Amino acid sequence: MREWGDVVVLLNTDVAPEKGFLTPLLIHFRDPDVFAVGCLEKSREQGKIILRGRGIARWVKGYFIHARGETDRSDTAWVSGGSGAFRRSMWNELGGMDAVYNPFYWEDIDLSYRARKAGWKILFEPKSVVHHYHEEGKIQREFSADDVKRVVYRNQFIFIWKNVTDTGIIIAHLLITPIRIIQALFSGDHLMLQGWFLALLNLPVVLKKRMIQKHLYKISDRQLVVSQ
User: Fold this and answer.
1) Structure confidence by residue, pLDDT tens digits, 192-219
2) Does the bond joining 103 to the residue before it have cis omega, within 30 degrees of 0?
3) Are 223 and 57 contacting, i.e. CB atoms less than 8 angstroms apart?
4) Does domain 7-219 have CATH number 2.60.300.12?
5) What is the pLDDT of residues 142-153, one digit of tens each?
6) What are residue 8's DSSP bridge partners?
């Protein structure tokens, strides 16, 4: 009989699991290379139920563009920290979710990306169903839309500066970012400018973390694309 003490399940306070959701998650950990498995979220948003839990992502002009994916496949770009199971030993080796992303967003994408770059697997399990009461969560209650957008901009920059090792992607990012900044200046997108500046303030810490974690990496950035 396998012991499941090495598997930690995380659920946000605005998430309610359906009965029996654990079994489909835990089965995947029979594979020793699996780091994390995500749930199918029935997310309640503006009176509708949106199926979430599987993420897709690609590199575009030096930026990591991610979005909700279809829920009929098992591959995923990340496992949500609000509804997923994680192997504790690998979590500890990766150092867990990075507090540099506080107070929210990108920390689970970052953790999943580092795990995949280390050669470990992350999966999406549609049979493990949870209900996400999105509008009742702490972020929606305590932060304005501008606060959220500013943090998202900041954390996007931090993610790239912290994790990317592909020379072509780095060059693309360095070439495109000044153009984005100029565009933001002319369009009045002050939140993007604030996010970039806040990311710069974190740059010494980010570069230190980059040096610490790079020895784990076995997979190139260009291989870490998830489509559809």
Assistant:
1) 999 999 999 999 999 999 999 989 999 9
2) yes
3) no
4) no
5) 889 999 999 999
6) 86
